[in-house]
């Protein structure tokens, strides 16, 4: 057994028994340059100094070089170890960390030092906590608001499954965008997202709008896992029924041989088609491309969201 094999088994023990899925060579349209900029190194040093985790690193995001060059990091709170074992995700799984009581203030300090006009804050799943980490999310939102009042805040939360009152706690802290990713079509949930429930995730997004219609809601999908275009269309309809404003669609990339295999690489033209279909179904915004991820270009997209809402309200008033 190689050192790499041992490391991966420690990182994803629930996948150790699974057969290897060879990692396919990426097509030209999805290859990215290795991160090498001075800004990348400065951002990395800041995160280490404040003992903060980022989903950019933990999930092996292909856009890390581009985003960190502009010092746009996505913070991952509630520790670095997830209690779920999704087949697509590179975040470490196992016994979770103790909550760091200084993490909300450290995130707020990093936001200020990076001079972020828009910040994305996500987390691991914490099924072990009574509230799923909802109060920690709320504390982090409040800390960022206090330290950087003009920064808009986007959160990407777990599903808070069976955590009564959790979503209410987070909504009360008033993030500007509440994101929860469906990830894939319901048929693929048992294999790709086994710890989650499709309709529970939909209900969470609908509940956010019920509690505070002024908060933008957002969800994301991966494609290339074996879904059909008809299934993606149905998920779009389901999201619109939950009054979701913004949909992101990106190519699934296999992190290790133990993760789910890529069924196929979706072409840029197909992504353009999904964007057209989504806008036709009534989303305020659809970001659809091979390298699209939940937090990719999130600040610029937030401005587009606000403009789209204003246009919609203006048209309704006319």
Automatic annotation (TrEMBL):
Cofactor binding: number and manner: Binds 2 [4Fe-4S] clusters per subunit. One cluster is coordinated with 3 cysteines and an exchangeable S-adenosyl-L-methionine.
Binding site for [4Fe-4S] cluster 2: 82, 86, 89
Pathway it works in: Protein modification; protein lipoylation via endogenous pathway; protein N(6)-(lipoyl)lysine from octanoyl-[acyl-carrier-protein]: step 2/2
Pfam hit, one: Radical_SAM
Signal peptide: none
UniProt key word DNA damage: no
UniProt biased composition (Basic and acidic residues): 1-20
Compartments (UniProt record): Cytoplasm
Region (Disordered): 1-25
Catalytic activity: [[Fe-S] cluster scaffold protein carrying a second [4Fe-4S](2+) cluster] + N(6)-octanoyl-L-lysyl-[protein] + 2 oxidized [2Fe-2S]-[ferredoxin] + 2 S-adenosyl-L-methionine + 4 H(+) = [[Fe-S] cluster scaffold protein] + N(6)-[(R)-dihydrolipoyl]-L-lysyl-[protein] + 4 Fe(3+) + 2 hydrogen sulfide + 2 5'-deoxyadenosine + 2 L-methionine + 2 reduced [2Fe-2S]-[ferredoxin]
Residues that, per the record, bind [4Fe-4S] cluster 1: 56, 61, 67, 295
EC numbers, comma separated: 2.8.1.8
InterPro entries: Aldolase_TIM, Elp3/MiaA/NifB-like_rSAM, LIAS_N, Lipoyl_synth, rSAM, rSAM_sf
Ranges of residues in domain Radical SAM core: 68-284
Entry keyword Metal-binding: yes
CDD domains for the chain: Radical_SAM (cd01335)
Domain of life assignment: Bacteria
Keywords, alphabetical: 4Fe-4S, Cytoplasm, Iron, Iron-sulfur, Metal-binding, S-adenosyl-L-methionine, Transferase
A single BP term in Gene Ontology: protein lipoylation
Family per similarity comment: Belongs to the radical SAM superfamily. Lipoyl synthase family.
Name of the featured protein: Lipoyl synthase
Gene transcribed to yield this protein: lipA
